[in-house]
Amino acid sequence: MITPGQVVPDGGGYVHSYEITAPARVVHVSGQIPVTADGTVPEGFAAQCRQVWANVAAVLAHHDMVLADLVKVTTFLSDRAYRAENSAIRREILGDHSPALTVIITGIYDEAWLLEIEAIAAR
Prior knowledge:
Layout: E1 26-32, H1 45-62, E2 70-77, H2 83-94, E3 100-105, E4 115-122
Parallel strand pairs: 2-3
Antiparallel strand pairs: 1-4, 2-4
């Protein structure tokens, strides 16, 4: 994690960059949606956000990786109103791990989905 001297300091779970010095493997995780394995969409943002993170974790586990292997996360939110809750849940789930991060406010493929997360992991 590096904060260049000419930009605003890192903070709030945000870092300007994340350097990978020698990964053995890199996994690109497609956009994960708030849908359970049985096709259920949880009610409310918090439940959907936790489901998306569970889906990201499951995809990483398939590749013998964990959330601490994330180097880049892009979150697509359906509404600005979810910014603070999204940040709080991300920090709860990732703890002290701070991958490079982008949050985009946009329309989501299915209107029932309140967010989607894509990621890159390296180990």
